[in-house]
Amino acid sequence: MSESISVHRHFFAGSDVSQPGLVVETTVLQGAYMFWVGPCASEEEKDGAVEAGRLGRDWACAMPPLANGESTGTALFRSAAHDAALSMATRLARRLHSQVFVGLDVPEGEMLMLAEKKIVTSLALL
Fold first, then answer.
1. Which helix (H) or strand (E) holds 95?
2. What is the model's pLDDT at position 3?
3. Residue 66: CB atoms within 10 Å
4. Pick from 99, 54, 53: nearest CA to 79
5. pLDDT beyond 50 at 1
């Protein structure tokens, strides 16, 4: 049996010049996904944005539901100001039927709302 891990980075431009874009790093594991989302100015800067990003700003893990139950998850690192990763990881685990880790390094507001959409879009690009 061959086990492999693959890492993919996708840049998504902001909706206008005043808004930074987002970079989504997707790590595909056997039976699990790990996503990190952070701000990024351009396609050329996506590698540097990931390396300079903060995984522990808001980081959570969730498991898919068993039978007809609810997904369960836990926050691995978070602060009172940043706690969106847990709910996002839970929704993604339910949708993907896999264990999911989500790390968010984006400010509250519009960028945070776009983060989950961009994660789903990046999965379609794999």
1. helix 85-96
2. 67
3. 9
4. 54
5. no
pLDDT for 80: 65
**Cross-strand partners of 75:** 60
Half-sphere exposure of 115 (CA within 13 A, CB side): 28
**What is the DSSP code (8-state) at residue 102?**
E
CA 35, CA 14: separation in Å to the nearest integer? 19
Contacts 24+ apart (CB under 8 A), 85-88: 85/58, 85/59, 85/60, 86/60, 86/62, 88/60, 88/115, 88/116, 88/119
Residue 91 is encoded by which pair of tokens? 């929704």
pLDDT tens-place string over residues 38-79: 988 888 988 888 888 777 788 999 999 887 778 889 888 876
Q: What is the mean pLDDT of residues 24-39?
A: 93
Residue 105 and residue 55 in contact, taking contact as beta carbons nearer than 8 Å: yes
54 DSSP β-pair partners: none
